[in-house]
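Quick start: read one record
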Amino acid sequence: MAEKDSKYDPLVIEKVFPAPAALLVDKQPAVNVMAKECLFVLDANTLLAPFLIGKESLKDVKKVFASLVSQDRLFLPAQAVREYAKHRASKIADIYTHIQQKLSSLPSNPQPLAIPMFEDVPAYTAVGEGADKVRSAVKEYKSKLQELLSQVRNWHGDDPVSTLYASIFLESHVIEHGKSLEDLSADLERRTIHGIPPGFKDKAKPDGGIGDVAIWHTILKLGSDRKRDVIFVSNDAKPDWMVRGGDEGLFPKFELIAEFHRTTGHRFWILPFDRFLELLGAAPGTVVEVASTTDVPSTSFATKIASDFLAAIANVETLDLDAVFHRLHGSIMAFLGPDESDEDAEYEYIHDQRFSALVKRFGELLSVYLTQNDLKFGQPKTLKRVLALLIRMDELNREIAYHAARMKRSTTEQQRELRELAEEFIELHMKITTGLHF
């Protein structure tokens, strides 16, 4: 028998669950009840997740974090901060590499079509004009890519996410575990031999899983010192932390809950980042966007950031008010039309991924338009109603899409309201485009 096997304790379960009678009557409080007073601890993957979200969602995340910090309820394990710092650089490098690849893969400018015999043909003239527009668009596209590369290149700890953290967290929010390397190593060995979470499934990691054990002891220390319940915010649903059902982490391993209660006298839970934000009152759109970042591979990380940015430049940012208005009309008609409607579908919403960007662009352009004297496009009252409709539709659409992805709950009322607002938008669009907007 190997030396490691000789250390196996056949009665280890008695040490993991030393008070079996309590297991029969002990009740874990509801998470929404815990969340009102507990301390929150952020994992490294949670700290990295905001690199994948947009400006407005990042503001929302900052609002949630700042509120908890002001209440002295948000903390970071030192090990999680170190892991975040290690992986942050590689994530930014991935983004930079992807943008470079996008720039190098752009096609050459179209060459002029030189066929003199067609000079009097309108279509030939139109082809030439179209080629000029393509050349101009490609030039602008490359320019924006270069600007973005320059911006990423000049990030030295002052990227938007790092700046956010620097403005919120102090040294006092970073918690050390207080254990020696020898103590952590011995505990990791014990957990690995006996299959006790966490860390026992991380033998293949360079650190052998000691990082997870360090974070766990930090959580135990925080709960003991502060005498409070703790919720660990992590997108890591590995089986040495979570009980899994299918592809999802359902709830923390009971061994963790029991050890935390035995050590601190208080309660422990684990939440993914999106659920944490939802409980703390973040906007539905933020919750949806954060949910889409869960378990994103590093190769997709750069693709999502750069592609979303570039799509905005190419498809939305360069559009004028009339073009945005008509693209919104097309997206909403697709939602109302038979091609996208499914009588058997539980969740119906606008599937155009540009919809939120189009709504935002419409609002920006409208604010400029309303300062002009020559209001040919439409009257202020009508256009302001259109904007109000679009903003509410975007909120509803994000909420429905979120619950459609996670199958969280019924959104029948939200879908009904979205459809009613969509129909009103179509009516107003017709009045504006036909001049009946007074």
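Residues 1-318 form one domain.
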